[in-house]
Amino acid sequence: MFTTGCWYVRLCQAVLGGGPRTGVLSAPFESLPPSMREPAVQAVMSLPADIGLPSLGELGPLIGHLRRRYDLNLLSIEVLAAAVHLHADVYISAPSPRLTEALRLESRVVELVC
Q1: Element (H or E) spanning 92, and its range?
Q2: Cα–Cα distances in Å, from 25 out to 48, 52, 91, 109?
Q3: Which of 4, 29, 55, 100 has the CA that lies 20 to 30 A from 12?
């Protein structure tokens, strides 16, 4: 199992209160009792050994090539590049039609999970 750098940064910012509002990523942490919140935050700050994180050094050139074919935002183009690089299936939690189409065109399986 892998995640992407941009998504992990987004999660860390949300969990550490990087914005003024509570959102989808931060709400579960905000709702925890204070005694449970800090251990949960610390668990997010260190990825488990069984979750990989491809580096932008590996993905950068591929992102550049894929950008020629697909008009995707940074989060999505990194997901696409990681999937192509790792020959991986992708599981997303919110519909993203342009990302889904790009993944399919690159022969990657994409599944929406809620």
Answers
A1: strand 90-92
A2: 18, 20, 16, 24
A3: 100
37 with 29: CB under 8 angstroms? yes
When pLDDT is averaged across residues 71-83 and rounded to a whole number, the result is 97
What is the domain range of residue 16? 5-44
* % of the chain residues with pLDDT over 90: 63
Rounded to an integer, what is the distance from CA 101 to the centroid of its chain? 17
Domain presence at residue 24? yes
At residue 18, the pLDDT reads 56
Residues 6+ apart with CB under 8 A from 44: 11, 12, 15
State the average pLDDT for the chain: 91
